[in-house]
Amino acid sequence: MNILSLFDGISCGRVALERAGVPINSYHASEIDKYAIQVAQKNYPDAVQLGGINDWRSWNIPQPDIIMGGSPCQGFSFAGKQLAFNDPRSQLFFKFVEILNHYKPKYFLLENVRMKKEYQDVISGLLGVEPIAINSALVSAQSRLRYYWTNIPSVTQPTDKGIFLKDIIEHGVVDKDKSYCIDASYWKGGNLKSYFEKHRRQLVFQPTQTSERGRRLTADGTRRDDHNGIIVRGYETRADGKTCALTTVQKDNYVTEDFIIRKLTPIECERLQTLPDSFTDGISNAQRYKALGNGWTVDVIAHILSFIII
């Protein structure tokens, strides 16, 4: 099949096609981020990079059988200013529609964030289908609810694979079953206060050394260290290897040892997106985090694509 991937990023769609067993005759990708392109080209040097989507009328490509993409979501996200179609990035959705109407492929797939019903209805009206809501938590260790508009028939919800955050971290302990959604700004890091108050940065608790029992977690008890993280007083460990529940209630947090609070590693973020380890090697960690946050959870896309009739 001939594939046209719009807003291609690091070519998560190509990985998903391969996992779904969809044969690929040609793969053309539209992307402008040079670091994302670098990752995509490292993994798939045979892909044809087309440049930005605004120049689509100058493309000379074979008739696509599948057009897919995740148009920029910042204007729709509840986490943003919700400028919707007034956000220049979200207006690129209309380019997706133009290209779709021009080529009329056999199949299409568009991904975007959960949004207000009024915005969702505009997209559904132009694409002629209602979205399918799928949470990546079913196939990965992160909670990541996304909408998928597609004409691929009979798509169902994926089977829960039972993958938890503790299963994918390289070292340390975690305080929940699933990671918060990894986004493109994860590289900016986080701190303990914002972690407990806003829950927008997934952190890992890495034991360091034994400390005096009976002390409690306090804001004054934190300090920077040489591990590029924050050391805080930890939580009582148990004989079964688990930690006691981490809460914001100070009286619940009894100490047995110190912990380094660290970000997820790039490899751990790759695992959250169900990509192969080191898939994004070759660029800075900041750019790896950004690319992964902008990417797809591959196994969700592979599940949807598996319903294609070849």
Cα gyration radius (Å): 21 Å
Succession of helices and strands: EHEHEEHEHEEHHEEEEHHH
In which order are the strands of the major sheet placed?
3-2-1-4-5-7-6
Number of domains: 2
What would you call the structural class?
alpha/beta
Give me the CATH fold name of the largest domain. Answer: Rossmann fold
CATH architecture of the largest domain: 3-Layer(aba) Sandwich
The fraction of residues in strands falls at 15-25%
CATH class value of the largest domain: Alpha Beta
- Classified in CATH, the superfamily of the largest domain is Vaccinia Virus protein VP39
Low-confidence stretches: 75-79, 209-257
Model description:
The chain is α/β, with parallel strands linked by helices. It folds into two domains: 2-162 and 296-305, Vaccinia Virus protein VP39 (Rossmann fold), CATH 3.40.50; 165-267, no CATH class. The protein is built from nine helices and eleven strands. A seven-stranded mixed β-sheet has the order 3-2-1-4-5-7-6, with no helix packed on it. β1 (2-6), α1 (12-20) and β2 (26-30) form a beta-alpha-beta unit. α1 (12-20) crosses α9 (298-305). The protein is globular. Mean pLDDT is 82; it is low at 75-79 and 209-257.
